[in-house]
Amino acid sequence: xxxxxxxxxxxxxxxxxxxxxxxxxxxxVSKVKGDWIVSTINDKPVDQFAQEKGYATCQVMKTVNIxxxxxxxxxxxxxxxxxxxxxxxxxxxxxxxxxxxxxAWGFRYDSKADTLEFTVAAADGNYKYVLxxxxxxxxxxxxxxxxxxxxAAAGAEEGAEAGAExxxEEGAEEGAEExxxxxx
Length: 184
Fold this sequence. Notes:
Elements: H1 2-23, H2 29-32, E1 34-41, E2 44-45, H3 46-53, H4 57-60, E3 63-66, E4 71-76, E5 82-87, E6 89-92, E7 95-100, E8 103-110, E9 115-122, E10 125-133, H5 138-183
Antiparallel strand pairs: 1-2, 1-3, 1-10, 3-4, 4-5, 6-7, 7-8, 8-9, 9-10
């Protein structure tokens, strides 16, 4: 009986040690808590990727906020409003995962680079996002992009008007000079 008790105690001790080791293999949510922004998309800096696609940076930017009980991914909708989706973060072996609207979003954590990485499948291919710690105000940046576009359009219109006026003046001067030459 003593032998059986000792064996049982040894088995229980081994189970406890193994469960602690297995629990320690995952990335704690507390390591990745905070605000994250896109650094690269498909290995290109986010600004370069946006420019190549003909977008403002804010239109391709995504932000991620992670707390103990919520992981939120935010981006801009087509109308410029901020849209967010959320799920509960769970530790996993190489990062964190959140079930968002029935889909598992996996975020791989690179502790050396202090980055998170996730991939989104789209109709035109997969997009690999690498995130760094930081904040980004999507609504404010969208408004800045709209203001810049409106300013550029107004500047182009003013330039066209000034150019047309200049052409008219030059044409009028040339016409007057021609009339003077003909009158002589």
